[in-house]
Amino acid sequence: MPMLNADIARQFELAADLLEIKGDNPFRIRAYRNAARIVEDLPHELAGWVADEKDLTELPGIGKDLADKISELVNTGTSVAIDTLRQSLPPHITDLLTIPGLGPKRVKKLYAELKITDLPSLKQAAEAGQIRELAGLGEKTEKQILSAIEAQTDSSRRFLRATVIPYADALQTHLQACARVHRVAIAGSYRRGRETIGDLDFLVWADDAAAVMEHFLAYEDRQDTLAHGDTKSSMRLKAGIQVDLRVVPKESFGAALHYFTGSKAHNIAMRKEAQQRKWKLNEYGLFDGENAVAGETEEAIFAALEMEWIPPELRENRGELAAAAEHSLPKLIELDDIRGNLHAHSRWSDGKNTIEEMARSAKEAGYEYLAITDHSQRLTVANGLNESRLREQLEEIDAVNQQMKGFRIFKGIEVDILADGSLDLPDSILRELDVVIVSVHSKFNLSAQEQTERIMRALDHPCTTFLAHPTGRLLLARPPYPVDVPRLIAHACERGCFLELNANPQRLDLNESYCQLAKEEGVPIVINTDAHSTHDAVHMATGIAQARRGWLTKDHVVNTRSLKAIQKMLRDTRLD
Ligand code: DGT
Ligand code: CA
Ligand code: CA
Ligand code: ZN
Which residue owns the Cα nearest ligand 1 atom 5? Predict the structure, then answer.
């Protein structure tokens, strides 16, 4: 791995932290910090300069000593001086600096007097009441330390996007109710539509930041305050979700929205784009020297860089900048494009509603069709259907279809894939259905090759319409079973069937990069709620966010088709 500017900067920051804990010369510390900032902001990689033997002391703030360290870091991957410094102190001691209220002086004291060397020993000492005994620290600091440590461990905790949505909406309403607030936006991974969210990043354009902070922290659903600053505050909600708020002036709103939407990788690529024009892009705006080129809106920033506005879901530095520059970004699918749902359960297996209730609610949502796809007999825990019960169900579907005008219920099944890849119901009945979904609900522990071949065999069945939730993962709960998804995608393409993007917030299976691959390989995707009640209809929105992250357009998605068009598509998946 070549040493990037960011790596060099991190080494210099570390050196500055260590020197500070040691109580070293302030000028030396500042020199390291300045150098870190300069190196990070450079428009070119220093590794290239070192290779070309260019003179690094030409850079502002880099003297002979730092220039030698940069060459050493690039050439050997380490610096003897920084390593020696690191070894003179416990390896994790700089972690203590991440606790608010703990600066180098206090860390030095904690180390000298209580032998505190890392976060676990800090926590132990705080719990034992030892910190309050130190001169200049006290009981209040001890409490702050404990809650900060808790918050840190909590921050590794992630939430399903669907879990966070109602909290985000409620807090947005709360902020909009503040008279000083002109505009509220939610940035971060939430805006990018990620499947899980680490924390919420709120952004407000307001003139009186202090008043907005007061209003924010007075929120009734607040558990505790993690930070209260002039333009930035953080709190944790009772549900455990952390929220950051930043207040910015009007002229920076678009730049801040772009910056805090991220992703970090996208931001870095955008900053390079600006630097190529000798401009500077940061959370305050796009600047040519001292002059702001843009900043109030995202649109103006992208336009100044001669790019199309990039939808947040694509901002992961996966080719979106090049596409935006060529004006060839895909027109991403939208919720309104969806005209039906091909995977839903009723009371016949483990659903909560009748077929008629499910159909009427789909029709009210503006859909043209719904497939009822209950479980098959092997899934006894879900009251799966055998052939004779399925035949009875088909009669009920005929009856409801008779009564409903301008809407179509498709006859379907979610049939289990058995151990050997055969299906859990006889061909004779599968042949009578419009939609045959094949699913893995057992034998998750096969080898990747066995699992892949088992599923490919199920896809080869002449009646198969599509494979449901292809990897079986449950977000934050269960990893995917071992399976070669690219091979499944290639096989589905040859076979001429579809793959599902299951919109259940805990599944979102296929994931975004597999959606992108399926699109490239020309395999149609069907986005389904897998609804087990009429309330589950809302999950379609989660599925759409995922599809957008996978670069999917309306054309790639089966259930954007009209009733007539989809009937033909469904027939075309049949091989008999
Ligand atoms: P999360 O909260 O883990 O689900 O993910 P994000 O993307 O919301 O990340 P977060 O909350 O840490 O930061 C929000 C955005 O702020 C992030 O997507 C990009 C921007 N950002 C944060 N730190 C940095 C940084 O060190 N450099 C750059 N260029 N951008 C950053
Ligand atoms: Ca975030
Ligand atoms: Ca954040
Ligand atoms: Zn299902």
Answer: 189
Ligand closest to 469 (CA) is 4
From the options 2.60.40.3080, 3.40.50.10490, 2.170.270.10, 3.20.20.140, give the CATH code of 335-572: 3.20.20.140
Q: Give the pLDDT confidence of 100-158 residue by residue, as tens digits.
A: 888 888 999 999 999 999 888 999 999 999 999 988 888 988 998 888 887 766 556 79
Residue 199 CA, closest ligand 1 atom number: 2
| Helix (H), strand (E) at residue 64 | helix 64-76
Q: Whose CA is nearest to atom 23 of ligand 1?
A: 264
Taking a C-beta distance cutoff of 8 angstroms, is the pair 206, 182 a contact?
yes
CA distance 224 to 437: 47
Is the Cβ atom of 268 under 6 angstroms away from ligand 1? Answer: yes
Q: What is the pLDDT of residue 5?
A: 85
Could you say which residues of the chain have pLDDT below 70?
1-2, 152-156
Query: In angstroms, rounded to a whole number, what is the distance separating the alpha carbons of residues 33 and 323?
Result: 37
| Contact criterion met (CB below 8 Å) for 487 and 493 | no
Position 224 scores a pLDDT of 87
CA of 520 to the centre of ligand 4 (A): 26
Ligand 1 contact, 201 CB (< 6 A): yes
β-pairing verdict for 159-160 and 196-197: antiparallel
DSSP letters spanning 250-281: GGGHHHHHHHHH--HHHHHHHHHHHHHTT-EE
Class of CATH domain 258-325: alpha beta
Q: How far is the CA of 189 from the centre of ligand 1 (A)?
A: 8
521 Cβ partners below 8 Å, 6+ apart? 489, 490, 493
pTM assigned to the model: 0.76
Architecture of the domain spanning 5-154: Orthogonal Bundle (1.10)
Residue 325 beta carbon below 6 angstroms from any ligand 1 atom? no
Cα 417 to Cα 257: distance, rounded to the nearest angstrom: 46
The pLDDT, as a whole number, for residue 155 is: 54
- Indicate which residue's Cα is closest to atom 8 of ligand 1: 188
Q: What is the pLDDT of residue 154?
A: 58
Q: Residue 243: what pLDDT? A: 97
Hey, how many other C-beta atoms are within 10 angstroms of the C-beta on 564? 9
Give the CATH number of domain 159-248: 3.30.460.10
| Cβ of residue 197 lying under 6 Å from some atom of ligand 1 | yes
Start and end residues for every CATH 1.10.150.110 domain found in the chain = 5-154
> Which pLDDT does position 256 carry in this prediction?
98
Quote the pLDDT of residue 514: 97
Give the angle subtended at the CA of 235 by the CAs of 231 and 239, to the nearest 5°: 150
- Pocket mutation for ligand 1, best pick of 13, 159, 260 (most atoms within 8 Å of C-beta): 260
Residues with CB under 5 A from ligand 4 (ion): 414, 530
Evaluate: CB of 538 within 6 angstroms of ligand 1. Answer: no
